[in-house]
């Protein structure tokens, strides 16, 4: 992991650089965009946790059926582990070592030599870490790339593997898909990435901008994980706020050391227009074992600036579009060629995508990452007329960095084009990560610094395929969220596990410590030929599942290739035949399902953008019914979702006795028993209640 990240010839070194130095002439306005974590942290790596990692002691510590120790072929030392013709074995051979791991972030690796591996059958060799030991591996399952063919010794690794709790785990040498041929492995490695002190800025929650009309108390989550056997209480924890322009320490404090705590500074005295660095340190009482985490930059600004920012957040974790609280409703798209004309964009989006039938406020076509301003500015003009914002993508994907993904406009286009695009009223920001490996966090962090500098008043969005790694990304993106796709493959007898959408949203909120708004991506496609498209009821269910889990925005994947665009016209990757009449009934029906759900959510937006008030609900009798409460000062709105595939009943108890409770849709009143009311829910059903006090 690096503190300096090289991006297309531009070297960004964030340590100790004032915000004013990074907001160059290309920024679209005077907004400072470079607050937040100032440099990417470098962990301290543990020693190798594997025993007998070079097989010098034979197979001691390993279970390795089908493998043998080879003393004639080694990377270092006197021995290696060899496997020949896994395809001839009645089982899939593997070499494993079981360990007890602490909660944390781990790295695996090792050296591999291959000879004719997978030449005629099977896959190859890879290293994996999974937990728990027995299937299903619900805590983690991470593997290196697969190697096959004939090649001399090469190093395979996978970094930043999150283990979310203390657990038994297993390191695995995997003969993937039982290949023929031979491979040798040697000098295997399992290490833990450790931060004796780690801080995370809970608030201010948008790019370190401390608006002077919101709370002036800056809050940080501090976790201590000292090296060795020392307990956090053995350490002294201190923090300070330093004016970057003068180097003067303006605030400082000591805090009680603990495994986890919240440290805060009252920043009322900070000066508007000044940038400050907030840093924390630990050391032993005698001054030994000092450790500092990289500083966070806070910039004090006028609250009036929010109205000039296309996108920002408020202290209640709501998305703001030009200062107005907004629930994000967006769609992904791909395909369609560029055009340089607003009328042609209007015709194309209306005809090929029926886009403007959908009450959305965000649009992301990730095939336009290289599109120049000659195409994108007319697109933004057209979207603006429909009150829709667009994101420009320059993103990693899986294990590929943005540089490997292709010549993206942000990095390869003319720098002179940047101001015009980001200044456009319909420019919402950048899309920087799409289901990326956690090993790419440091690369995206560097890209994020550039994006904030280019566009000080927007967002940088990234979406992950799993929630276990979200905590690793929270300082590398403005907005991070899960894409929970429960409708994979053939439908199980018990139905698809739609509860996963609610679970993943809740896990995302927990990983962000409730300190950032996030979006969830909802499945709007058929996942494999064995699967099917979601029904209208299932789209609605997944949407509310994400909302009760804490999402303040939803994106739907996708209107484009491998999704809606491929219904009817199959291999045509670019567009349907001209005219809405050319849409087949299946395409029209699925579009209508999405439109129906979006219309309902758009109508509910005034409720969804209200502040959260979980304290107004005292309890529920059924834990499978998940809830979220909104409040406008006089009326509460309770969103309830049944996260099970069976009929459920729940009694919901309010903290204050209400006058009336009714279902928002249909207005049906429910009988009150003091502060409680009872209702029933179908499988994966959601209800919204209006509660008058």
Structure, explained:
This protein has 693 residues and is of the alpha+beta class. The chain has four domains: 131 residues, Sandwich (Jelly Rolls); 111 residues, S-adenosyl-L-methionine-dependent methyltransferases (Single Sheet), CATH 2.20.130.20; 282 residues, Alpha-Beta Barrel (TIM Barrel); 79 residues, Golgi alpha-mannosidase II (Immunoglobulin-like, Sandwich), CATH 2.60.40. Helices cover 16% and strands 36% of the residues. An eight-stranded parallel beta barrel has the order 27-28-29-30-31-32-33-34, surrounded by five helices. A hairpin with a 5-residue loop joins strand 18 and strand 19. The N terminus is likely disordered.
How are the SSEs placed, and which strands pair?
Layout: E1 4-7, E2 10-13, H1 19-22, E3 36-37, E4 44-45, E5 63-64, E6 68-70, E7 80-84, E8 94-101, E9 104-117, E10 124-131, E11 140-143, E12 149-163, E13 167-176, E14 182-194, E15 197-203, E16 209-211, E17 217-224, E18 236-243, E19 249-255, E20 260-266, E21 275-283, E22 291-292, E23 296-301, E24 311-313, E25 319-321, E26 324-326, E27 328-333, H2 342-352, E28 362-365, H3 373-385, E29 389-397, H4 402-405, H5 409-412, H6 418-422, E30 427-434, H7 441-454, E31 459-464, H8 470-473, E32 479-484, H9 499-511, E33 520-523, H10 536-548, E34 553-557, H11 585-608, E35 617-620, E36 625-631, E37 635-642, E38 648-654, E39 660-663, E40 676-681, E41 686-692
Parallel strand pairs: 16-23, 27-28, 27-34, 28-29, 29-30, 30-31, 31-32, 32-33, 33-34
Antiparallel strand pairs: 1-2, 3-23, 4-14, 5-8, 6-7, 7-14, 8-13, 9-12, 9-14, 10-11, 10-13, 15-17, 17-20, 18-19, 18-21, 21-22, 21-23, 24-25, 25-26, 35-38, 36-37, 37-41, 38-40, 39-41
Helix pairs in contact: 2-3, 9-10, 10-11
